[in-house]
Amino acid sequence: MENFSGGINIDASEFHTLLLKNDNTVWSTGLNTSGQLGHSPTSALSSTAQVPGLTNIVYISAG
Predict the structure, then answer these.
(1) Over the stretch 4-48, which tens digit does the pLDDT of each residue have?
(2) Domain range for residue 40?
(3) I need a labelling partner for 53 at 20 to 30 A (CA). Which of 3, 24, 27, 32 fits?
(4) How many domains does the chain have?
């Protein structure tokens, strides 16, 4: 994962990571076989990308 600034919460499972930024947006990276990254199509992301449609988020959990 590249250098990521502005994060206030990071949570990870075995194969994916979620990041909550201080602007209350969610970013994700890793495997996406079941859509767990919040991106379509369900292909892996090797760098972080903002999860579309999520705003004003205050807590994340990668499960």
Answers:
(1) 678 889 999 999 999 999 999 999 999 999 889 998 888 888 888
(2) 1-63
(3) 3
(4) 1
